[in-house]
Design goal:
Helix content is 36%, strand content 19%. It has seven helices and five strands; from the N terminus they run ααααβαααββββ.
Length: 220
Amino acid sequence: MPHTDQRRPRPAGTVAVFAASALLASIGIGLLLYPPSAAHRSAAHPGPTASPEPSTPVPPTATSAALAAASASPGSSAPPTQTPLALPEPIAAAARAFTVAWAGHDARPGHDSSFNDAARRAAAYAGKQLAAQLTTASPGAARQWDQWTAERARVTAQITTAAVPDGAPAPTPDAAYVRVRYRLTVTPATGRPTTTDQQVALELQPDQAGTWLVTSLPNA
């Protein structure tokens, strides 16, 4: 029988094994040549998150302090301004009457003849010693009177307040200190009147009958 050199066909399973081995070898070579990036690794395996650094406290400014004060509760507000000491009405009335007479003048013809006429009217509300001092003429008063006479002016005082001065003691049965604020208006015969705000400090004491009189002008 003649000999034939025909080879037997290889089974299909053997071919599949060789193909799979070749594929795995290719994948292994690719991994060695091109490793996964750090970003892919970190995405796949996230590391521990770093805790934020503590913030440095910002020192308070004047604006923040003002806003804090404005938003404070009513209970933490600043104390109210101190109320002025009460002034008994007999003392206040005597101080007002003296000031109106002492500061008022009438230089129109047929009225006051000198600056001292006002002092004589004020003497009715003053002690004897002060009344004598008020009528003492001074160069400044004489010049002022000459100006009013030339203008034929009338001078009036309107009381605005009468109260115990800041820092002065409260009134007692024997003495009282009063600061009178008033508006002095000079009205000439022609032209517009002028107005200024004035004040005078007074010391008052009662006489034997209990009537309060001005005994001195401490700052005059």
